[in-house]
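During the second year of the project, the team shifted from modelling isolated chains to modelling whole assemblies. The rationale, set out in the original proposal, was that interfaces cannot be judged from single-chain predictions alone. As a representative example for this report, we include one of the complexes processed in the last quarter. Its constituent sequences, exactly as entered into the pipeline, are reproduced here:
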Amino acid sequence: MFEIRTDLAVEEKESFQGGGKEITGVSLREWRKASSSIKLTEVVIFDEAGARAMGKPCGTYLTMEARQMGREDEDYHREVSGELAAQLRRMLKGLRKRRALPTADPLHVLAVGLGNPSVTPDALGPGVLGNLRVNRNLRAVNGPPSDGEEPVILSGIVPGVMAQTGMETAEIVGGILHETKPDLIIAVDALAARSIRRLGTTIQLTDTGIQPGSGVGNHRHSLTAEGLGIPVLAIGVPTVVGAAAIVYDTISAMIGALWSNVETKRMGDYVENLQPDEQYQLIRELLEPEFGQLYVTPPDIDQTVKRLSFTISEGIHMAFYENPQDGGEGGI
Amino acid sequence: MFEIRTDLAVEEKESFQGGGKEITGVSLREWRKASSSIKLTEVVIFDEAGARAMGKPCGTYLTMEARQMGREDEDYHREVSGELAAQLRRMLKGLRKRRALPTADPLHVLAVGLGNPSVTPDALGPGVLGNLRVNRNLRAVNGPPSDGEEPVILSGIVPGVMAQTGMETAEIVGGILHETKPDLIIAVDALAARSIRRLGTTIQLTDTGIQPGSGVGNHRHSLTAEGLGIPVLAIGVPTVVGAAAIVYDTISAMIGALWSNVETKRMGDYVENLQPDEQYQLIRELLEPEFGQLYVTPPDIDQTVKRLSFTISEGIHMAFYENPQDGGEGGI
Amino acid sequence: MFEIRTDLAVEEKESFQGGGKEITGVSLREWRKASSSIKLTEVVIFDEAGARAMGKPCGTYLTMEARQMGREDEDYHREVSGELAAQLRRMLKGLRKRRALPTADPLHVLAVGLGNPSVTPDALGPGVLGNLRVNRNLRAVNGPPSDGEEPVILSGIVPGVMAQTGMETAEIVGGILHETKPDLIIAVDALAARSIRRLGTTIQLTDTGIQPGSGVGNHRHSLTAEGLGIPVLAIGVPTVVGAAAIVYDTISAMIGALWSNVETKRMGDYVENLQPDEQYQLIRELLEPEFGQLYVTPPDIDQTVKRLSFTISEGIHMAFYENPQDGGEGGI
Amino acid sequence: MFEIRTDLAVEEKESFQGGGKEITGVSLREWRKASSSIKLTEVVIFDEAGARAMGKPCGTYLTMEARQMGREDEDYHREVSGELAAQLRRMLKGLRKRRALPTADPLHVLAVGLGNPSVTPDALGPGVLGNLRVNRNLRAVNGPPSDGEEPVILSGIVPGVMAQTGMETAEIVGGILHETKPDLIIAVDALAARSIRRLGTTIQLTDTGIQPGSGVGNHRHSLTAEGLGIPVLAIGVPTVVGAAAIVYDTISAMIGALWSNVETKRMGDYVENLQPDEQYQLIRELLEPEFGQLYVTPPDIDQTVKRLSFTISEGIHMAFYENPQDGGEGGI
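Output from the structure prediction step:
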């Protein structure tokens, strides 16, 4: 069994708009900060109809995109970290407004680095946690810092993957919540995209947590407010594309090409007349069953993961340890 | 502040016997299996007097020693794994007799790999867990194996160190216990010895768990039956010696040398006449305060840790997955 | 630009035989040892016509295959190591017969672990070298071992990848040859296959060295007897499939399916009537240019690479350090 | 056999000055940049008498020291990188004046990351190389950059350690020189200091290359202009102290303490009257022979090595890729 899926809400939305269809229950907004190369897109799924159409739960999905994210430019990555921090703060503000978080500092945050540290494209979460500066242990020993209160109590865990631990991630994280009682989880994970152009060039930030079946290698993570009882902000970067998605896209392109050819038009008509789910079924039968487990990734993925691990950990540091200078207002 | 300490009960016992003293509340037994180069030593601390004298809690401390453990000899390491498995089974039998464990299989075991995977001599626990074959996840999906019941349900975790997680190891492990309810913990840790001859050549197996302040780098682990509510078997290998221990030993040797010299006998007398705690105090004042944090380790520690990670994980596999062929009776 | 390629000669041969064609200049032989699950296939390319048809240089390509190689079965991996050792010895014997190697022991061998240790499916070569027991340094200090001559002087290098070193692998290895003058190179590399069923289940051993453009990530390695002046035995395991290969195969299957359908037969005829290179051209136009750089790999590739790194290093140890008990005669 | 040694010329010099002695053939200069917390010390050994006294070859040894180097302060590390770049440029200028380097750009530089990546305190060199941006490969493909000439052609190698490769580092590097003909080597290595206060807080930059027996674990590296035929700049950070050094220092302190005590003065006199080499001999006899191989290191050495790997790689980038803005004149 395989699944052609994307962990990016923005790609799910595009796949509908390609057909020129509006989706009820889903809004989309795009903007760009002045003098910035980062494009921001916010998809909000606000009711059950939208959730069904998108195959994703209600909530806000913010995407930050820039081609240059793939390059080794320290100043540029600093800009991305700053924007991530601003958007994290904006989401926190929203959660506080909805009374999902306490309004008084310090906020107690548990960062969770999902994925397998031994498999390069899955190692983003462990990489971010390796760069993260926690302080919960220092406070336990020294009390609050003498030079004014820090606004966060931060701890972090790399739970590992089920093949190594024999446990569901939600069991491990749920147990730690039980013992340490944080207010909020920040989960970092490598994602699967539909388009190879997204690999390493997009960051998705969402307040819906991690859904079962998402992430690289289908680890069946599930870290959601419903399951855990506290809000879960998820930060993800696509590092793989499912092998099935690539095959599907190429075959779709071939059908289009054949349809415009006189010789093969009749075949094109035939395939065109199939319903999308029949087309999907046809292709599915052709794909080998092993494909569901396979993923596509570029050979320089180690550099991408190393770089973005740094960019994201810096964004978290700026969001939680520094004084806010940017409201991250969302480009009104 | 520093501390001259050893995590090995056998070394603690030796330090008393060097002075020819018997310790009440502590028994010692040594043996060697026929045709084996492995020397076994069992120290049992059976009352509070013994515990006070030894600075370690009541329980059984079994040591397996062999010079060849430091070498790259696959057959030899197989023998060590086999002996470790036999002794693990013997301890399990003891726990079952005392009704500390359920008698019916399968036994649900959580393995915990303590230490910092990024610091070579502290990476034994994570190394063993990296080689461990867990099965709890498979049983959750497939049910019990069709070809007869496996005697264990095994899961495992590498909790990381407090400087990286901001949490005490006992908080993380305690939380996981709360969620997954195992019967037994097997904790694996790198240890600090007094003698450099022990580095990589000794395995200690104990039913007392992990005490606060033990291990490399003083991670303040504490994983005990009292704290966690289930038995904790601990497997450890010394990979470091505290810097203070080495200085102390050398100075002691120097005092001995000076005492036997006519010129310096008077000084020797003086130092000799100091009580042991005064001697300790003198040396302590000379030692720089940073010493408490420093450890001594050999440059080929990476090979030692890699090799013993394999030997110990194989021992655990043999103890729990295979049919017992050796009662590990303890050489009666 | 992309390339649909396989590093396995046995797959290249199969793609011809699928069309029922014999290739001049190429022989194929298959066998299985009694009571063994390992299937051996030997492709010999013995002239220029064969080399052109196969797109690979003249020489012997031996493949060892077994589904169980993917599993965690220590005894089985020992059997594979033994067979690899036997076949390595057979190739050495052949090279000595052809006077490409000195006949007197000790043989001076340089092992080269190709690939990027930071990218999991490309880390096979560095993994094997990490397990390898070299002895050249000991001989330099101690002279030949006192208990009889060892038949090999072994050294090893992990040259890294060009993106990290800025140098061609052949420059690094060529320089080391210049200084240390070994008789033979054993190069270990991760390979690209056509079929996902080969991933982690096949070992290829060849006396033709490493060709430019082979390996994962197209590192443009080239380590050949022509380039280096000494024989190069190459050991490889497929860990990836090119993304383009998977798309190509699926589309080929679709064309077959359409051709057998009345509605779409005409289209099938059209595509069928295209020459293979025209078909290839059609598909190539549909594929996105980025595909050439992408590869497909399974999510548990870390376990596969770890296991096979051990199996292959043991095979090399058995071939060179142990007394031959198996002539590896090739099942005549 | 052991050796009480330091790889830092500044410590060697201090050990003489402790005795109030001037050394002929050696000059020392200390300064601090305005508004900087970095203390610079330059030891120049300018003749054979100085070299004999210091146990180090003629040349310039520059030390940059600051307690804050041990902390996680990004701005501070940027300052250190900048100062390292300025001093690297100053050494290059000196080499060009002496016609040891070509005066026209681009300069062809080979960076060498010495040490064992698997042993944390020895992993500085491999860590720096992992962060280094080489460009020699890009120039080979694209030619010189279109937007003006870059002043450097940079390549890099991590040769590994003899226990893993079976080869001397100088053999590997010498071979690569033979093939790629760089103008200059930059070697990066972890060092052994005498004082634990130096660990992770000092960078030494020297134009004398790497001497046999220096570095962590006594790898018998030797990379010098005499041996290799081109200049070798070496960058090192102390990450260990030899166990013997710590014992020696403590015993020296004890002798001092005893000497000032009436009871023990006679013994103090006796030891005081021993010549330094007799003292050294006495202590040496007390130390166990295994000590020569042991080193002392702090438990958070992983963070130190990670941080300084970044600081040094950035310093190399600034020195070679950026336009000089700071002459690094040495604070006259």
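Chain D has twelve helices and nine strands. Chain D has a mean pLDDT of 83.
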